[in-house]
Structures are given as structure tokens and as C-alpha cells.
UniProtKB/TrEMBL annotation:
Keywords: Carboxypeptidase, Hydrolase, Metal-binding, Protease, Zinc. GO terms for biological process: proteolysis. InterPro entries: Bact_exopeptidase_dim_dom, Pept_M20A, Peptidase_M20, Peptidase_M20_dimer. The keyword Coiled coil does not apply. It comes from the Bacteria. PANTHER family: N-FATTY-ACYL-AMINO ACID SYNTHASE/HYDROLASE PM20D1 (PTHR45962), N-FATTY-ACYL-AMINO ACID SYNTHASE_HYDROLASE PM20D1 (PTHR45962:SF1). This is Carboxypeptidase PM20D1. One of its GO terms (molecular function) is metal ion binding. Belongs to the peptidase M20A family. Coiled coil: none annotated. Transmembrane segments: none annotated.
Amino acid sequence: MTPADRLAALIRIPTVSDAATRDEAAFVAFRATLAELYPLLHERLERAEVAGGALHLVWRGGTAAPVVLMAHHDVVPVADQPWHRDPFGGEVVDGVLHGRGALDDKGPLVAVLEAVEGLLAEGFVPAGDVHVVSGHDEEVRGSGAQAIAQTLRAQGVRPALVLDEGGAVVEGIVPGVAGRLAMIGLTERGTAEVRLTVRSSGGHAAVPPRRQAAVRLATALTRIERHPFPARSNAAIVAMAAALAPRLPAPVGAVLRSRTSAPLVARLLGALGGVTGALVRTTVAVTRIRAGEAANVLAAEGTAELNVRIAPGDDVQGVLARLRRIVRDPAVEVELIAGDEPAPLSRAHGPAWDRVAAAVAAAYPDALPVPYVMVQASDARHFSGLGADVYRFMPFAITAEELAAIHGADERVSVAALDAAIAFHRALLTAG
């Protein structure tokens, strides 16, 4: 079997994280299939199942500081998405592997496992211990990887490097910058789940009051949309600008190399909006709204749920305070359901960064390593307290269309990108 064949076999096992329909038998089958596909790894590495299904594999090595390589194996649902192929078919067509999890995050997991299995077959011994961590509930903000991080902390394990999903090798995403970029996340935004609630006495719809609960809720949401959080710079943005400067025309590049340009860069990125704007500002998405149960009855209560992604420089309590100021209505309750602060900032220099950059060069000689702020959340945030540089990077060369298909229909990855990702991990593991 080829690496693509093994990834296809794992994609065919629907390890979907969904509280209502989660099939634990699929997760049991996935773990059993891993043991069949990677026999040396399961024979020679220490193996533990944690918190109901997260995997912790330890490859013992020399005396150097350990490395932690992460990739979760649960995936998001496919219901109501317009897939053109079976999302759990694992089909390879014209050098492209199709299926849920191809990129998020079974593909990256296979890249790690292929590298380890191959090196084991060659008799290689790593310079330090290698911890392979695969969460089983990352997509639902679960506890698997978090429990493993707590175990490592209790054992006093201090890795030199932690690597999890994040940026990829991309081209054409930064205006004016030519060539391929390896986008390596130095941090990730925090998250907050916020609920807005408005209550009233309800009543018959034939005699509506002037300030209905649903209308007050809609007014609050409109105010939030009209007052976005300000764009602001941070150390990761400064490092990103400095890295991109050599590939930009001289006048622009010279400006970006100056730290005094940081506020200007932040405002420019913020004005571009979309993914680019999300690098420099806290964002608020309205994900659920509910008000009323019948067509002829006034809603006695209206609720809206907000998904807030918190940029470095902001924090959970500051987000709540700002939302309350924007809403400006004492009848609208602004309540925090859950929240995580932005992750600490890792370094874009030093031995850990140099090791990742060297592995990028081995797999993608033409790609420029570029630090950035990861706009999504990952299991990596749980490992920040171990004292390591934590990077968020998926060593796959992907197109804008492939990037957009993550969590959407027609998720896919090229076989060539999978092979390059394996080469990246071999270079990373054999360094030092």
C-alpha cells in the first residue's frame, strides 16, 4: 500500500465529532486500523488511550529535548453539504485524494505516521523522545489533547518544539507577493461563546408593543455588526511583515522592515477584510438566533449566540465589556458561555523555528517560511504551558480552493502534497 492508500482507508472510517450522532464504534475501528496500517509504530512505541480515545504514542530517543507532533483524527459532519463524491469514499482521481479529513486532519496525521514508520524500518533513533498526539474530539473543543498536555506537564516534560495543524504552503494569498509561502502560526486567536438574551412579557401578536424582544435583539446584533473590533498590530504581524519584505518591491519592503510601520500594516490588513482582516482583529460571528414559537404569539424571549475569535492583545473580559458598550441596552443580557484567551506567542527565531524552517526547505525548497497569526483554534493551545515554542503548520502545498474546502464540501488533497508532507516530517525528525 502507498501512503495515499493508507490515508484513503482511514478516510473511509467516519470518525465524525457530533454530540448527537457520534459513533464510538467508528473511533474504535479507526484505532484498530491504525495498528494494522502501522505495525512497527504500534510494536515499538509506547501507546496510551487517554480521555476516552485520544492517542498518545511515545518514541523513545536520546537525551535531547523532546518533540511533540500533533494531528487530531476526528472530523466535522458532512450533512447538507453538496459533495460531488462520497465524502467517506477515499477515492483517488487524477492524483487527488477526496474525502472528509483529507486535510483536516487525517492527512497531516498520516504524514507524521508515515515518517515515523519509515524511520523505524530504517533503524533510526531520534535525538530525543518524540510524542505523537492525536485528539479524538478536537472539532468539539474536547478534552483529549488537553488531558495529554496535563499528563506531560505533571511528568515535567519540556519539549523543544510542538507542531500542530495550522497554516500551509500557499501561493497568491498575499497581494503583491510572488512565490510560495509556508505560513507558520506563532499563536492562535482565543475563542468566546457569548449569548445575548432579551426577555419580555410576550402576549398576543395582534397588539405588539413598541419594543418587542425580537426587535431589541435584532437591534443589538446590528449594532455589533456596525462596530467591528479595531485592527491592531502584534508581534506576530510584525514578524510576518518582516518576512514578506524581501519579496515585495523595494519601497514597500523597506517600509515593512521598519517596526514603526506595524500600525499601518494592521490597518491595511484590517481594511482588506476576510481571512486577512482576521489576522489583526477580534471577529464576531452570529451563529444562532431564536425568538418565538408560534406565528401569532409575541416572543417572550429572544436569544442569539455569538462565536467570537479573540485576537492577540484582546482578552475575554475585554471582549464582553466592549460588546456591552456597543449594545447599549440594559434589557439585553450579554453572557459568557465559555472562553479561552489567545495563545502565548512563540518565537520566529531560535533553534525550534530554525528546525521547522529547515524541514520546510527540505520538502519545499522554493517556499519562504512566514510567521503569522492562526485565525482558527486548535489543540495546540493546550500545550503552550509546557514552555515550548508551539507552531501551527500543516506541511501541505494547497490551493485556495482546497483551503476553502476544509470543513466544507469536496475536501481533498493531492498525493504529491501528501508525499511532500511526509518528507517534511522525516527532515524534522532527523534534524539534530
